[in-house]
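Why do we care about 3D structure at all? Because function follows from shape, and shape follows, mostly, from sequence. That is the central idea of this module. The next example makes it concrete: a single protein chain, its amino acid sequence, and then its structure expressed as tokens.
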Amino acid sequence: MGSKVTRLIRNFNVENRAHREISRAKPRAAPRHLPDGGIPHDRHDAPSITEDVHRRNDPLLSMLKDVYVESKDPVAQGDAVVQTLEQETQRRQLKLSLPGEPYGFCDVSDVPKGKLSLVEAITALNNHKNLPETWTAEKLAQEYALDPKDAKALTDFFFPFDVRVISKKPEETKQITED
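And the structure:
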């Protein structure tokens, strides 16, 4: 019902409004500047400006032909790209993986150096949580071929889930009774 009302309002007197808009005086365009910096006062000067714009300027074209641009990439960037490609191509075998495909994950056999699989990350974090003296960030970096800075960040900012079961009624607690 609402769309019919809006359509009626939108289409009301469309032809008259269109004719009124078409017959309305158009705004004048801004005047074009002359090459000497002056402003043309009438429309008869405008064709000379368009001729100036479209005319070939041979001295400028000859100077443009003399310009030769040569660019070279910095050597340092090229070496960095080659090193990162080599690091990505180096792969290591997984230490741990899921048994079979019960969770719908495609089991991978190797990962790039400097990366961890999900199972390895959870295991490494759990080992660090249970035995922080043994499984330090340096040992995790060595064991899983990680950058020591990344291993330190992993142990500082991530932790596995901690499940705590709270008993329903501990015997030591006293209950408040109404007097």
